[in-house]
Amino acid sequence: MSDNPLSSVFIPTKDPPKQSLIETVGITDDGVFIEASSGFGQTGDSIHCHHGIMSAEIGQLSTIPPKDRSLEAVHKYVRNKNSLPKEVFHGGFILSKIDGPLSTGNLVLVDTDPNSNPIVTFNYFKHPQDLRRCVYGIKTIEKIISTNTFSNFTPKDGGYSMEKLLNMSVAANINLIPKHTDDSTSLEQFCRDTVVTIWHYHGGCHVGKVVDQQYKVIGASGLRVIDGSTLSRSPGTNPQATVMMMGRYMGVKILRERLGRAAGV
C-alpha cells in the first residue's frame, strides 16, 4: 500500500485571501506537485470543533504508527489546537506532494471479523528518493515566495524569513507526529514531521493479487472491488475522476454482459 505524502509551507498574506480548494500550480521534472490552498475558512473558535475525516482527530491518524493511534494521542492533538498561531486564519498554504511514492506500507487483518479495522502502515519517506523529492519541493516553494511578484501578497513589515515560515508551518501542522527542534533547519526533518495525508490511499487490492482483470475478488463469488485500492500508482493530483471513470466503465460492462442490448448503454 502507498499514500502520497504532502508537506506544506504556511504563507501569511497582507489581505484576507479568497477561499480556494487545493489547486495544482506546477509539476517539477521529478514529479513533485506544487499546489496551493488559500482562505482557511475557519475562525479561532471553529477550529476547535470536530470536522470528521477532515480533522486530525480522525483523518491524520495514518501518519503515525499503529501502536501510537490511541485516544490519548487524539486528545493531545485537540489540546494543541488551542495553541495554533493566529496567522493560520489569515493566509494560505503552498503544498509539496509526491507523485507515485516509492515508499510502501502494508495492511494486516487483525482477525476474521469483517467489522474489525485492519492495521494499516504507510511508511512515509521510507524510500530515500521520496524524502529527497520532498526536500526539493520545499526548496522550490522557497524560490517561489522569494520572488518580487510573490512579495506583493505578503505583509511588507512581517519579517517572514523562510526559517520563520517553516516554524509557523510546524506550529500550524495538523498531524499527530511529535515535532523536533531542528524542523526549520533540517528540511529532511521538516518533511518527516509535517507530512500529512490527503487521503489518496492506494494499492491495497492489487490487480492479479487480490482482484482479477475484471476486478472480481479472487476466491470470492459476487464481489468486486473498483476503487483507488486497485491502483498500483497514484499521481500527485486527486484520482477521483479516474476512480469514477473506472466505476462507470465496469458498471456499463457488467450491464452489457448481463442484459445485452436491453441494457441500453
UniProtKB/TrEMBL annotation:
Q: Which domain of life is it from?
A: Eukaryota
Identify the InterPro entries for this entry: FAD/NAD-bd_sf (IPR036188), GMC_Oxidoreductase-Related (IPR051871), GMC_OxRtase_C (IPR007867)
**Where does the Glucose-methanol-choline oxidoreductase C-terminal domain lie?**
101-247
What stretch or stretches form a coiled coil here?
none
GO MF annotations in UniProt: oxidoreductase activity, acting on CH-OH group of donors
The cross-references to PANTHER family, in alphabetical order and at most eight, read: OSJNBA0019K04.7 PROTEIN, PROTEIN HOTHEAD
**Protein name listed in UniProt:** Glucose-methanol-choline oxidoreductase C-terminal domain-containing protein
Species of origin reads Aegilops tauschii subsp. strangulata (Goatgrass)
**From which lineage does this chain's organism come?**
Eukaryota, Viridiplantae, Streptophyta, Embryophyta, Tracheophyta
